[in-house]
Amino acid sequence: VRNGQVAPIYVINLLISDIIQLCCMIVSITAPEDWNIRIAYYIHDFSLLASVGFMVCVALERYLVIAWPLWYRFRRTIKTSVVVCVVVWVFSLVCLLILYFWVNEEVTNIIVAVFLLLTFPLFIFFLGGTLKALSASTVPSDEKQRIVGVLVLVLLIYTLLFMPSIIWLLSDQVIHDFTFSVLSHMFLRLSPLADLFLYVFTRKGVIDKLLASVCCCRMDSNDISRSSGNDDNIHTVSSV
Fold first, then answer.
1. Which UniProt keywords are present, listed alphabetically (predicted)?
2. If 0-12 CB within 10 Å is exposed, 13-18 middle and 19+ buried, where does residue 30 land?
3. Backbone angles phi, psi at 171, to 5 degrees
4. CB neighbour list of residue 157: distance below 8 Å, 6 or more residues apart
5. d(C-alpha 168, C-alpha 181), whole Å
6. pLDDT in tens, the chain (240 residues)
7. CB 99 within 8 Å of CB 108
8. What is the 3-state secondary structure (H, E, C) of the chain?
């Protein structure tokens, strides 16, 4: 943030929402039976909606860097990012209050499923638009790799962890299936841990270090195999 980078602001808020989800899950599991843990579930759902909003912000910001670099360079400011983050938190809170206190459970499930389903095409659009604009972009190659990595990871996380819950909420056939219900909730609970990988892709130099370490490991293994092969050849020649 001190260097004027906008992307970490959204990722930090995403991690905050994930930490809130993890804390609520711990409370719901470890709380005594006589405790009223309904508030923990409300806070968890509130942070879950916020995390989806910040995932959209991360994907949108990465898309603008490639597709609209000049516009984004003059428009991105710390103040704008903070305002967007506040709007996401407030919007999630308003949605939670409306859905859980003014609407019945069946309508709430449908609205949440439609909201999550409408977010999915946005991630596909951001990834497709970024790949299309890569050839004409002046962004350095290492930055392009990080941007594409973030967009692919966001789409992968959303597809694997959120789509089962969307199917469970919209389908009348699987909503009463206990196994599918447990699996969809389990995948949804794993989303805070999966979001941590977004921080790795947004950090400069982290991916390069990981690739360098992998390359070094491969080179060391190749050197060991070559040296062992040379030793075997020398042993064979000496025996002859």
1. Receptor
2. exposed
3. -90, 130
4. 55, 191, 194, 195
5. 7
6. 555 566 678 888 998 999 999 998 888 888 776 666 778 888 888 999 999 999 999 888 888 888 887 777 777 778 888 899 999 999 999 988 888 777 777 777 788 888 888 888 999 999 888 888 887 777 677 777 778 888 888 888 888 888 888 888 777 655 566 677 788 888 888 888 888 777 776 666 555 555 455 445 444 455 445 454 554 544 443 444
7. yes
8. CCCCCCHHHHHHHHHHHHHHHHHHHHHHHHCCCCCCCHHHHHHHHHHHHHHHHHHHHHHHHHHHHHHCHHHHHHHCCHHHHHHHHHHHHHHHHHHHHHHHHCCCHHHHHHHHHHHHHHHHHHHHHHHHHHHHHCCCCCCCHHHHHHHHHHHHHHHHHHHHHHHHHHHHHHCCCCCCCHHHHHHHHHHHHCHHHHHHHHHHHHCCCHHHHHHHHHHHHHHHHHHHHHHHHHHHHHHHHHHC
Tokens of 43: 């806070």
Q: Which residues contact 24 (CB under 8 A, 6 or more apart)?
A: 40, 41, 43, 44, 47
